[in-house]
Design brief:
Distance between the termini: 14 Å
Number of strands: 7
Oligomer: single chain
Number of helices: 9
Radius of gyration: 18 Å
Length: 208
Amino acid sequence: TKVRHMVWNSLDTMNKHSSYYHRRVKNHYIVHGFDPDEFHPIPSIERNGRVLAISNVYKARNHFLDYNTFHRVSNKLQVCDVVGHGNDDIPEAIGEASTFQDLIIYHNMYSVYLNTTVRSAMPRGRAEAAMSGMPICSTCNYDIGRYFTHNKDIVFANSYPEMVRELNKLLKNTKLAAEIGARGRETAIKHFHINDFVGKWNSIFESL
């Protein structure tokens, strides 16, 4: 079977690596898509003043996800939790989200979402949290800077000191955190809407 179409979820990755494939291969960039009616704010839930990361097998995938930096931040702040499976080897683990609704509750219960990934092009967990209106503190790599702006709809932090500083900023200033979370949801809806995702895939299928 010959490859005729290649779909990437990172424009940066596509630009760097698409030349490895035959020139007749058509390359497409389709970022993840989410339904804003499924991932949504729940105003009745009060935020708990804690930091959340959602990751499976976090420590074992340290090379991609940088659990080591998360753990340093956790030791400093003492308010960090991790949801996901395969995390019995880390002290921050609090179990899995047993239902989809539990996941949305976590998004609305925690005060800040921390993404430490270094080799994951567009982490789904980060986009899901943003779609739910959760304030995001994230490393800035791959394509995320194409969509989000520091101190407007996200805060970027690429090192341990930056993460501690930015997380403290959002934890101490709940008004600012709420504003960044609300604008982050608007940005996520604009760029990561499920309708755009499905439409782009359908256009590829129709061209086959």
